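We read letters as residues; the fold follows as tokens. Both lines appear below.
***
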Amino acid sequence: MKLNVLKARGAPDSRVNDFLYLYDEQPGSRSLIATNVAVLKLATCMLLGAALLFHNVAFADKCLYVSSYHNGYEWNDGIERGIETALSGKCELDKYYMDTKRNKGEAFYKKSALATKEYIEANKPDIVIACDDNASKYLIKPYFKDGSLPFVFCGINWTSEPYGYPYKNVTGIIEVAPIRPLLKEINGVVEPVKKGVYLSADVLTEHKDYQRYRDIYIKEGVELRGVFVKTMADWKKEFIAAQSDGVDFIVLNNNSGINDWNDEEGKQTVLEHSQVFSVTNYDWMMPYSMFAMTKLPEEQGEWAAQVALTILDGKQPSNIPIVVNRRWNIFVNPALLEKSGIKLPSHIMHKAIKTGP
């Protein structure tokens, strides 16, 4: 009888007994050989399977999410949730925040974009999802236009024309607010609508939003005046002034970018002074507004992530058309409506999400 020892490559010595079998040249020994060979094959397959699994985990596609703003900015957090949901278990997701909402000015934007570029080059992602305008303006356009690294943008407001999209390596989804549907609802509450105020933080995106509102509303015979503030005190002053300014409505577009914003001060101000119909496009502005038609940030993130996976599967970004968002939510604030004496149509009150100060 011969004693033979088989050992899987790389297996520790303690595993030798798992693969030991007796090879007996006596008649009838072949069944024992066959049995032990089968065990060996099974064990080998298990080791190979584990090795392949480790390989797939260790060398999965690397996706990078670049936010123009900071972690904690509510709208972008929603986009990020959509990305995380769609990529879960399908891509190794990394994140980088340019922080250009809290830090303003061309010098900082360019410095942050350069740091982001260096981060990308050091970490070598397979694809980048870039959120909001500053990532496109200061990062993608100057450093990655028509390059080999694919990008999917999201959160760009109204149009991508300022950045020259599409590029051969870039596609994305444009963020469009329901301006005309919102004006239709305002007309259903206040008639005739002739004049309004647009009150928002003094940041690039809000100026861009205002221009779009103004251009559309003027075509409908509605004058819209833009007011942009940097501080909580100025926001309160302008909100109160608008109540006696002869306007028919107020668009409270965004408080992000007012670095000293105080939720309680905002709520107290609107509870004490609201008389004019106030509307918004952001759900987090509902404690201070009577009515909202809002975009869904998750829609932006989910679409961008699904497209990123499609590109990783081999489709060229240039063959994927740029699209716009298509879904809205409706909110009402019954406490502020009651305080002002303004009544909304019953069909709106019935289907809207109720919120409060």
